[in-house]
Amino acid sequence: MENFDFKRYNFYICNMTKSSLVSHYLRQLFLTLGKQVRILRVHPTEEDALHEFRLQIKRLRALLYFLNTVIPDKKPLKLPRTLKNIFRASGFLRDLQVQRKVVQDFFPEPWFVSFLKTTQPDWDIARKKIKSVLKAYSQHATRVFFQRLFRRLSHLKISSLPNLSLPLVQAKLELAVQALSCETPALHEIRIHLKKSQYLLEILVKYFHLEDIIHDSFDRLKKITARLGIWHDQEVFALYLQRQTFEDEEGWNQKFIRQHLQASALLATELSEQIPDLINALYWQTEEGAYSHV
Q1: Quick one: average pLDDT of 81-86?
Q2: Pick the CATH number of 6-293 from 1.40.20.10, 1.10.10.410, 1.10.287.470, 2.60.40.2470
Q3: pTM of the entire structure?
Q4: How far apart, in whole angstroms, are the C-alpha atoms of residue 251 and residue 30?
């Protein structure tokens, strides 16, 4: 059980202005997004830039979820269309990149070459689509969105962030537990809940300097989501195999699907123990009466 040191946290906060904390966090997001867009405009299929762009958008979505939940009386903030379009277009391309990596790691070389030829038309379509939306990207619209985001965040008392965000994290973790209790655990749904929890905690750990307070729980959550990320990559490809018809005399397709199903069952069993433990570790704010300290 982790104890939240509010005295130390409030001492730190008192020595920084609200605007400096918020502006630093949003500035990093804005600059990182802009950098990845510039790279992708030149190299639309650059894997690291594509992955980093999508990662920043997911962080933004978690932040929007947080703000729209804790300030419900205001009009909900939404991701600007210019960013949403790139995110959607990049999804298909990212799936193809992941599939190529899975095939390269698991299947023999001739199968990999055949897969590249088979999926080349899809690759060309995805590349053309993302080039189109990148060309239409509006930096002005993105800047206006971040300005609105800054104003909305500025309405919050920074020292209240732990008490506002941690209940949302716990709620997402509990939704993950519910998904695990199904007869066939919905691992993809679980992954979404856990990733959103991770991004919410990341705001506190990385940008509001609470790493000494909730570092252990955050690290445990990252390890779980990393495993789910590997599982998801293989799940995407397993679903692809089920939709396609390949000549597979040696049975590589069925072997991969069979191993993936076994790994999925094992992962669900492990998560059924790990996630409740993680929830218990984050219950300090209610058990220690944290709400009354802010």
Answers
A1: 94
A2: 1.40.20.10
A3: 0.82
A4: 47
